[in-house]
Design a protein that fits this description.
GO terms for molecular function: metal ion binding. About 20% of the residues lie in helices and about 30% in strands. The strands form two sheets. The protein has a five-stranded mixed sheet with strand order 2-8-7-4-5. Helix 2 packs across helix 3. About 30% of the residues are buried.
Length: about 190
């Protein structure tokens, strides 16, 4: 009986450890808050609150009747500007922005950082950097995939208003159907 319980505990520990994957740790990324919970529902909120490193597909599995049309899981995993007004970063054109990724579990895929207009969820600048392959499981992960810099171009007034734009790190591992993203609210 002890062996069976130990084996089960090991399986549960391994399964639990594979939930966490990666986020921007610097500059300050969007965090879950009350507005996110209101538009996406408490089930999605609890999923993200318990593990911000998780993938967007896990959120999709938790869509239910409390999830409103305002919940944009494909933009910053649904995390909202309204919950992050204190974290807006101002970057003049040609500012070099150091970015740190906290990676907890690699999955081979592709990754990039772009400036995205939040009203349309469209890339308006970038990719500013890209990696292909990214976060490989078959080779050591290069240091420049978890600590790198991007240069913010002239955004021609598109990001003058807080909440209009994000600097988005996007990582897609197609072989396992998992997508990760983190957003930093920016103005220029």
């Amino acid at each position: 009986m002890f062996v069976k319980l130990s084996a089960l505990a090991t399986v549960l520990a391994v399964a639990g450890s594979t939930v966490a994957h990666g986020v921007i740790s610097s500059p300050p990324r969007r965090q879950p808050g009350t507005n996110f919970e209101a538009v996406c529902g408490s089930q999605i909120y609890n999923t993200v609150e318990s593990d911000q490193y998780g993938n967007q597909q896990l959120e999709e599995q938790n869509i239910n009747s409390a999830t409103t049309a305002a919940c944009q899981l494909y933009l910053c995993k649904g995390l909202t500007y309204a919950d992050n007004t204190a974290n807006v970063q101002h970057y003049a054109a040609n500012t070099v922005v150091p970015i740190t990724i906290d990676l907890r579990a690699p999955h081979t895929g592709v990754a990039n950082v772009s400036v995205v207009a939040t009203a349309t969820n469209k890339v308006i600048a970038g990719p500013l950097i890209s990696f292909n392959p990214a976060y490989s499981v078959s080779a050591p992960i290069p240091a420049n995939q978890t600590s790198f810099s991007v240069t913010i171009p002239n955004l021609n007034g598109a990001c003058a208003t807080a909440g209009a734009c994000v600097l988005q790190w996007w990582w897609d591992a197609r072989s396992i159907d998992q997508t990760y993203m983190s957003c930093v609210d920016i103005t220029q």
